[in-house]
Model the fold of this input.
Amino acid sequence: MRFKYFTVWCISHQQVISLTIKVLGIPQISNYTSEIQSLNKLSQIYRTASNNAIDIQFELVTSQTSNSYADLVTDLFKMKDNTNDIIMLDVVWPGAFADNLLDLTEYDTLENLIDGHIPAVARNNLLGDKLVALPISAEYGFLYYRADLLKKYGYNDPPATWDELEEMSLNILEKERAAGNRNLNGYVAQFNAYEGLTCNVMEWIWSNDGGHVIESDRSVTLNNEANINMFNRIKRFFTSGITPLSARLFDEDASLNVWLEGNAIFMRNWPNAIGETIFRAKFNTTMNVGFGVSPLPGITSGRSAATIG
Done:
């Protein structure tokens, strides 16, 4: 899951205060230079607004995976390290680190703090009456598709339903493989046993009208016909050759690599894959063929679901 939080306040006093704020994070895309440039633009906004009184310095830990970065943050808190003023966190981490984070409502009202944010996303960081973080960006699961292959085989639009995705995949794969394109896959996503799979599963359940897993009355609704049908469909993706067996070990990067090599018709991934695909297309003619991004399919058109990551 890729989601970053931090909070910065511009200081407004008659007396100019010189302040350096250090921010620790982990890169979200492999094009590290591009991300640093974007963060520096954000820093410039605060520098200008504060008449050069506030300087924000970003440090992105490039050698860390998401899990090892979480371990690093844990160790920093244990050591009571005060090098960094702000730490970027994943969407599921605020609860785990809450005891080490400031309650932002001590500095402003909750309404003012979450104003301008998607309410549900901002309130994800509300633990009781304590607001411990705010989002800097929000990402959602999307369906990536090879526009060139869809056009080649007469499809004007990406699949709006899982039935359409399955039918398109089987049709295109049959013809492409017969033409010698043996490495092409129909659908890749995050199937390894980690939080990425959890995101996919929640999207499958909701998009298939399978309930909320735990309902408002605390009843568990996972074991129902809609979900059984959806899980059987995913199993069928593997047995029919739409999804390669190796995808059982795929995380975001592994599925993205297959996509970037031009070996997938469809891919479920986060928005950062857009920049990755455009960047790769500059150097790899395989992906310089046109691609598209759309909402994930549903059991019916419009019944799309995307987890926040």
